[in-house]
Design goal:
Length: 370
C-alpha cells in the first residue's frame, strides 16, 4: 500500500518518508514466509510443482497485461521485451534513468521489473534452502556477505566508467541488487522460529504497543536513510523490514476482526493492486476526470498540493484501483490459483530437491500463494 501511495501521490511527503520501501518489504516477506514454510515442514519440496504454483500465481495477469502492452508498443516491441518478463530487466534503447528501469513505463506503467526479480528468487530458493539444511545458518550469512562484497567490487570497478548514478540505477533494477533483501527475510525467519529460547525478546515482540513503536522508529530510520551507503541499503532495509514483519506477526497473530479481514482481502488482491495502480491513475487522468475532481476539491477546501494529492489518492484513486483489482483478481487470477497443486512430497520422489517439512503451515503457505 505504501508503494501505491508513493506512485500515485508522488509528492514531497511520500518521497521523504521513502514509501518506495514497499518493494523491499515485499521481497523480504517472500524470503521470510518461504523459509518459514520450509523450515517447519517435514517433507520435501517438489521443485517442478513448486515452480508451477509460482508461475500460476504470478504470470496469468502479467501475460494479459503483457499482450495489452504489445498492442500499444507494436512498433517498438523487441525480443528484449519478452526476455524482460523473466528477470533480465534490459532497456531496449539503452537509456538509463530511474523511470526507464521500469521498462513498460512509456506506455502502461506496469512496474514490470520486480516481477522478474521475484521469479528468479523462486527459481533458486529451493537450492538456497537445501544448502541451509546441509550447512546451517552460516551459509545464509556467508551468502549475504558475498553478495554485498561483490556488489561493492562491481560498483567501484565500474564507477569511473559509468558514473555513480547510472550504476546505482542499473544495480537497483537487478536480481543482484535485491538478493540480499530476500536473504535478510530468510535469516529473520530463522530467528523468529527460535524466539521461544529468549522469553524477554518474545514478550517484547508480542506487545502490540511495541509494534507501533518499532513502526515509528522504522519510519525515522527511513526518513534518514539517504545517509546509508546505497550499496548497503538493501541489506539494512531488508533486516528493518524483517523486524517489522516479525513484530507484526507476533503481535497480531490471532487477530480476527474487520480490520484484519480487510487487510487479508487486500493481501489477496495485492498483486492486481500492484500491477494496475499506475495504469488506473494514468487512465483516469488521461480522460480528464482526475484533474477535474482535484479542481473541484480545491475550490472547496483550498488544500496545499501535498494534502490535496494524498486526499485524492486515498479517497478517489485508491477506491477505483481496488475496484479494478478485485475484478481482475476474481476473473483472471483466482481461476488459475485454483489450479495449484501440493508441492510437498516424500523424500523418495525423484523430483524432490530439498528437505522440507509438514503441512502445519499450509495456512501460511496460502497467504504466500495469494
Amino acid at each position: 500500500m505504501t508503494l501505491i501511495l508513493f506512485h500515485v501521490s508522488h509528492n514531497a511527503l511520500t518521497k521523504s518518508l521513502h514509501f518506495e520501501v514497499g518493494v523491499d518489504l515485499f521481497f523480504t516477506l517472500s524470503g521470510f514466509l518461504f523459509f518459514l514454510i520450509a523450515e517447519e515442514s517435514q517433507k520435501d519440496i517438489l521443485y517442478g510443482k513448486f515452480i508451477y504454483n509460482r508461475f500460476l500465481r504470478v504470470y496469468p495477469l502479467v501475460i494479459v497485461l503483457f499482450f495489452l502492452a504489445i498492442v500499444v508498443m507494436r512498433d517498438h516491441f523487441t525480443v528484449i521485451d519478452y526476455l524482460n518478463l523473466f528477470g533480465l530487466n534490459l532497456t531496449g534503447d539503452g537509456s538509463i534513468s530511474w523511470i526507464a528501469g521500469d521498462w513498460g513505463y512509456k506506455y502502461l506503467s506496469f512496474n514490470w521489473w520486480t516481477i522478474g526479480v521475484e521469479f528468479v528468487f523462486y527459481l533458486i530458493f529451493p537450492l538456497i534452502f537445501k544448502f541451509y539444511k546441509q550447512m546451517g545458518i552460516s551459509v545464509l550469512l556467508k551468502l549475504l556477505a558475498v553478495i554485498v562484497i561483490l556488489r561493492y567490487g562491481l560498483f567501484y570497478t565500474r564507477v569511473g566508467e559509468d558514473g555513480w548514478k547510472n550504476l546505482s540505477i542499473e544495480i537497483n533494477y537487478s536480481v543482484f541488487g535485491h538478493m540480499d533483501t530476500f536473504i535478510a527475510g530468510m535469516i529473520t525467519a530463522f530467528l523468529y522460529l527460535r524466539r521461544h529460547a529468549f522469553p524477554n525478546i518474545e514478550k517484547f515482540l508480542t506487545s502490540k504497543s511495541m509494534f507501533f513503536i518499532i513502526l515509528i522508529v522504522s519510519q525515522i530510520v527511513l526518513y534518514y536513510s539517504d545517509s546509508i551507503d546505497s550499496l548497503l541499503y538493501p541489506t539494512v532495509i531488508g533486516f528493518l523490514c524483517g523486524l517489522l514483519i516479525t513484530s507484526y506477526i507476533s503481535a497480531f497473530n490471532n487477530a480476527d476482526n474487520k480490520v484484519s479481514r480487510g487487510l487479508s482481502y487486500l493481501g489477496s488482491i495485492s498483486f492486481s493492486l500492484y500491477l494496475l495502480h499506475s495504469f488506473v491513475k494514468d487512465a483516469v487522468d488521461g480522460v480528464g476526470l482526475g484533474p477535474y475532481v482535484a479542481d473541484k476539491i480545491n475550490l472547496v477546501f483550498h488544500l496545499p498540493p501535498i494534502e490535496l494529492s494524498m486526499l485524492m489518492t486515498l479517497f478517489f484513486y485508491l477506491p477505483l484501483i481496488i475496484l479494478l483489482a478485485s475484478l481482475t483478481y476474481s476473473t483472471i487470477e483466482k481461476p488459475f490459483l485454483q489450479m495449484r497443486v501440493k508441492y510437498l512430497g516424500n523424500t523418495s520422489e525423484k523430483e524432490s530437491v530439498v528437505q522440507m517439512a509438514d503441512p502445519t503451515l499450509m495456512k501460511v503457505e496460502e497467504s504466500v500463494e495469494s
